[in-house]
Write a structure and sequence with these properties.
By secondary structure, the protein is mainly α. The chain has a domain at about 5-75. It contains 13 helices and no strands. The two termini are about 35 Å apart.
């Protein structure tokens, strides 16, 4: 595959996030723009388009990730690690490279925030719908093994099984406590679009890695408040923060601070590259979670949760009748 330009790469990354949240309308729009760019093989675009039209979001994500992996392999120098300090053309080129790094960081951090929001919503649903059932099942397993242990004190295998069941029960209780947070508010598709657009605009005005050191603390306060509101689907608060930033001129101060001398531009470029690498690592960690794997592989979450609830209730009934505990584990997705 030939090297793709940054616009196409960012569009593919955006589509990967949209596939996670199963936003068919937005995916269709991005698909049209990909075709217009004429940068990808028509057969692969057709396969991706078909997956989206059939709501096969897991397949769509797999195709997108394959395209991104091939694009990264084809690149002579990854954009996140290219050294703008070595570019020819002096400060003008260096300033352009810094702006490109800022844009890339903004895209990655929005993808990270969106993925965190999706995973939080999934985990909150898991906690609310399955948490009590899983807790009951683990408790019954532990009690059954405890009774068996007392009946056969010399059985080391039973002792290990009991210790494992007890650890699972305590661990799951800790997980429930750790995720005992208010789930994001439910908003319409139109409000979702406004939320994303406003967050993206505002985050560029107050990103702590895009301002001078003297403004960094103030920018971080704004940015943290903005990110928290975004993850909670708090459209009113996100819009209020954006309005405050624009009216106060903070965004203009941040933009002016980016036009510094060469040494400051070099320092900012190095900081941006470090931050990009950190966000990419965080994204990889989020994609490796059980919850993300479930979201990738499941096109119908309602059916997924219904099947899990049926299985858990069946096992609880078996345990209450004194039948042996199931030997397989639980995919908690948390």
């Amino acid at each position: 595959m030939d090297r793709l330009d940054d616009t196409v790469l960012e569009r593919l990354r955006a589509m990967r996030s949209l596939a996670i949240v199963k936003d068919a309308a937005a995916l269709a729009q991005q698909m049209e723009r990909l075709r217009t760019a004429n940068a990808l093989d028509a057969r692969r675009l057709d396969a991706l388009d078909q997956a989206i039209q059939q709501s096969a979001y897991g397949t769509a994500m797999a195709l997108i990730e394959t395209l991104l992996a091939e694009a990264n392999a084809a690149a002579d120098v990854p954009s996140s690690t290219a050294d703008p300090t070595q570019a020819a053309g002096g400060e003008t080129t260096l300033q352009a490279d810094v702006e490109r790094l800022e844009e890339k960081l903004s895209e990655l951090e929005q993808e990270e925030a969106e993925l965190q929001r999706v995973l939080h919503r999934f985990n909150a649903r898991y906690r609310d719908e399955l948490g009590p059932l899983v807790s009951t099942l683990l408790r019954l397993r532990k009690e059954q093994l405890e009774q068996s242990l007392y009946a056969r004190r010399s059985d080391r295998q039973r002792r290990r099984a009991y210790n494992k069941a007890e650890a699972q029960f305590e661990q799951f209780r800790s997980v429930l406590e750790a995720t005992d947070e208010t789930p994001p508010a439910t908003i319409s598709d139109e409000e979702q679009a406004r939320l994303k657009a406003t967050y993206r605009r505002a985050s560029k005005l107050c990103h702590p890695d895009m301002v001078e050191a003297s403004a960094e603390e103030e920018a971080r306060d704004h940015f943290n408040a903005l990110r928290e509101a975004y993850q909670q689907n708090d459209l009113a608060r996100v819009e209020a923060i954006a309005e405050t930033l624009e009216e106060s001129g903070f965004g203009q101060r941040a933009e002016a601070s980016a036009k510094s001398d060469r040494s400051q531009l070099m320092a900012r470029a190095a900081r941006l590259r470090r931050r990009i690498a950190s966000v990419e690592e965080a994204l990889d960690a989020l994609r490796a979670t059980d919850a993300h794997q479930v979201l990738r592989q499941t096109d119908d979450l309602d059916a997924y949760f219904d099947a899990l609830k049926a299985r858990l209730r069946r096992e609880i009934r078996q345990l209450r009748r004194g039948q042996p505990a199931s030997p397989h584990g639980l995919n908690r997705g948390m």
